[in-house]
Each structure stands twice: as C-alpha cells, then as structure tokens.
Amino acid sequence: MTELSTMKDGVANQAEASDRVLQILAEAGRLFASKGFEGTSMRDIALACGISKSLLYHHFSNKDEIYARVAVGSTLELYLFVRDRIPDGPPSQKIRAFMVATAEYFRRYRWAWIASTTAFWNDPDRQRHKERLTRRDRFENFLRGLIQEAIDAGEIRKVDVPMTGRLILSSLNWMHRWYNPNKSATPEQIADTFFDMIFNGLRSGELVELPAAEPPKAGRRKSR
Amino acid sequence: MTELSTMKDGVANQAEASDRVLQILAEAGRLFASKGFEGTSMRDIALACGISKSLLYHHFSNKDEIYARVAVGSTLELYLFVRDRIPDGPPSQKIRAFMVATAEYFRRYRWAWIASTTAFWNDPDRQRHKERLTRRDRFENFLRGLIQEAIDAGEIRKVDVPMTGRLILSSLNWMHRWYNPNKSATPEQIADTFFDMIFNGLRSGELVELPAAEPPKAGRRKSR
DNA sequence: GTTTTCACCGACCGATCGGTCAAGCCCGGC
DNA sequence: GCCGGGCTTGACCGATCGGTCGGTGAAAAC
C-alpha cells in the first residue's frame, strides 16, 4: 500500500520525476513554507536551485503548477497514508493511530505540509485549491467516522463529533508553528501526548461522580 | 481596565487616530488577513478605502508600518485583555476564563488577529516581529503559570506544562481557519467546549457499563 | 489678508514581478 | 562526419510593485 513512497527530501508522491524536478519541488516547498506563495518569486526558486529562471518554465508551465505539485501533490495521499496506518482494535486506539500517523506525515513532508497549509489558504478563485480542500474534507470526515465509532462503542462521551474533530486536528495543524526539529520530541511523540491529554483529560483524580449540582466557580478544592 | 477599548470595526487599541486612519487599518487588516501581506498591494488598500495611494503615504510611512499598526497594535494588549478577565477562584476555572477571553479577543479583533498570525510569521527579518513575539511569549507564559497553579493545587495531573499550553493555544489559534461567524456558536462557546474536552477528557466515565467480554484497551491509562 | 497647515491627488520612478523566446549546449543514434 | 532532441540559458516583455514628487484646495492661525 506504500507504493506511493517515491520521495526525496520530503517531496511526497512525485513518481517518475527527474532529479531536477524533485530538486525544484524541494526548494520551492521550502521557500513557499518560509516566505509564502506571493513572497516567493520564480527568481528565488531558480537561485535556490542554482539554475536559470527559464529552466523552471521548461519543467513547469507556471508558478501555480509548481505550487500545485508541492502542495496538492503532497496532501494528495495524506488520507491514504493515514488510513493505511490505522490498526484494528478499539476505536480510541484508532484515533490515537490517526493522530500519530498524521504527525508522521507532517514530519516526513514538513515543508510541503507547511506550504500547503500556509499559502493563500482562502483564495476563493483558485481552482486547484478546491481539489485540495476536497481531499482535506475526506481526511476530516474519516476522523469524524472514527470519533463516532468510539462514541458508539462507549469508549468516549457523547461529545459533539465535528467539534471534537476540530480540536484533534487543531492540535496537529498548529504544530508547524512551534515545532522545532532539533528538539528532542518527535511529532509522533507529541501527537501521542496530545492524544493522552485529550482522551484522558487534564483533570486529576479518579472520576468521582460529577459535581453537576455545583456551580463551576466554587468547585474543586485540594489546597496545595 | 478597558481604557484601551478605543476600537472601530475590530481595530484594537488605536487611540487618538483619525477616522481615515481607522478606516485604512480596518481595510488593510481585512486584506492582509485574506490575501496575506505580500499578496496585498498598497493599491489594493487604497482602492478598498476609496482613496488615492498617495494618501496612504501621507498617514503612514510605508507598508510595514500599516502592518505593524494592524498586527502589533492589535496583539498589543491581548495579554492585558485576557489577564483582566481572569476571575478569582480555582485555577482550572482561570484556565477556562483564559480560553474564553482569548476567544472573545479573537471575535472582536478577528481580521487583525488573522493578519497578525498569518502574515510572514517566519520572516528571517524578525526585527519587526520581535516586539510582537515578545508579547506573545508573555501571553503564553501567563497561561503556563495558570497551568502550574492548577497542578500545584492538585486540580490537574502532573502534565508537561509547556506542552499543555501548546495544546490549549493550538485549539484557539487554529480556530480562524474554520470558524464561520454566520454559524451559531460564538468563539467563546467554542472555547468553552474545548476547555471541557481538554479538562475532562473525552473518555466516558466510570458510570459507563463494562461490556463484559470486551478486552481492555491496551493499557493507555496513566496512573498518577 | 496673508501665511501656515493639512488632507488629498495624479503622474511618475526604478525595481521586480511572472512569463516568453530564440538560440546554444550536450549527447546518443546514424 | 552530423543530426535530432532534450536540457539550459540570457535577453527581453508588459504589468505591477512599493514609494516619491509637486501640487491643489480649504480650513485654521496669525
């Protein structure tokens, strides 16, 4: 199921592409990620690759296509990548695997990930942007299915499913803003920690029954 | 506490500014938020305001200053805004108030918020960002203090404090990517829901019946 | 009544943008 | 030999970029 693993320097899913094309995609992804789409010129990309600007137009028809190959081509198989890493077992563990797999994808295709989630995300008139959003919808709906599964199995509370999905995805999607690859924790470890926090909650103590009758302010005490 | 509330159209903390300047800041914020800093030209801003491009340079020295007034000027008092809305009471409720207050700030200064968290966040020329980042650090450290407080009070588990802060902030910081002001839930309600999910966890409580033959869930429980 | 101040504008600047094009370079097949 | 065809280039294009300049008109200050 991982025949899609033709990759180089974090450029995902670019089968049958020449070394030069892969180089361009890698450099362009890095630049898009750090300076944005509008902030990156074709001259920047050419300079980073050590080639002439014209050569970019030999391999790609325009700037949008480079971005599409970086971003769309990279989110292309996120859904499949994650789906294939969901084990059989209790639904809650599937959610955990979902988070860890997404984090692994982030780690492997980091620049392309950042580029695709950063650049002109709300430009309404970009045709291929819609394709990417469709893929992300499928990805998100997959997560919602897992959450519903966990609810049906009685593993998690009867929470609002879309909102729960947004919380989980938020914890992963914001990671690129603070994640430092030189620090010790891997994205997978971070995702695992976040799953623990979200699934088990932060609250200490065994679940004694709810202080339901109590107004929130007066609540819990256990002075230090 | 709210002497900082000179605002118009979601432009925060722009005291003693003329109507025209406020208009420019509002329109520029909206454009920066939707098209990014590099993607927004001075002509765009002038056109949106119905004025000439020259007039922008009469009121501001350059494009960066407009961005600074929108973004830096808006995150300027986020820390104070939130701090003043933290009630006395149990630390966990302070964390909840922190989240709700941040969400309120997001709702009130939405465009400026998006512009400041979107545009060239990792520009190598961090100088103009340093001030803004310093403020955000203070903001984040404030949250970490609340988390530590809750741990010391025994209200929440002995979790990793910075990581917990990142989870909480992620849930809020990613909101602008999916929040729809036309839908029913307010940002404050969303933040409240997220607090409940993170604090109490998703896992169903003891009262859930144990399906007799069901194998246990692979030992994810963390004992404290 | 004169001068100063200030919001405002149209024309313009050099630089850079995305993109084009005709021509060279290189290398395997005749 | 020399012939095609893919890789590569520098010169160039119109458009647009951020920013400047000289000036206008009306109110405020003297």
Keywords:
homodimer; 224 residues; mainly alpha; Arc Repressor Mutant, subunit A; Tetracycline Repressor, domain 2; 2 domains; 10 helices; 58% helix; 0% strand; disordered N terminus; DNA-binding; DNA-binding transcription factor activity (chains A, B); transcription regulation (chains A, B); HTH-type_TetR-like_transc_reg (chains A, B); transcription cis-regulatory region binding (chains A, B)
Structure commentary:
Helix content of chain A is 58%, strand content 0%. With 224 residues, chain A is mainly alpha-helical. Chain A folds into two domains: 19-71, Homeodomain-like (Arc Repressor Mutant, subunit A, Orthogonal Bundle), CATH 1.10.10; 75-200, Tetracycline Repressor, domain 2, CATH 1.10.357.10. In chain A, helix 4 crosses helix 7 (110-118) and helix 6 (91-108) runs antiparallel to helix 10 (187-200). The radius of gyration of chain A is 21 Å and the shape is elongated. The N and C termini of chain A lie far apart (53 Å). The relative contact order of chain A is 0.11. At the A-B interface, helix 6, helix 9 and helix 10 of A face helix 6, helix 9 and helix 10 of B. The structure holds a DNA duplex (30 and 30 nucleotides). Chains A, B: It comes from Bradyrhizobium sacchari. Chains A, B: GO terms for molecular function: DNA-binding transcription factor activity; transcription cis-regulatory region binding. Chains A, B: Residues 41-60 bind DNA. Chains A, B: Pfam families: TetR_C_24 (PF17932), TetR_N (PF00440).
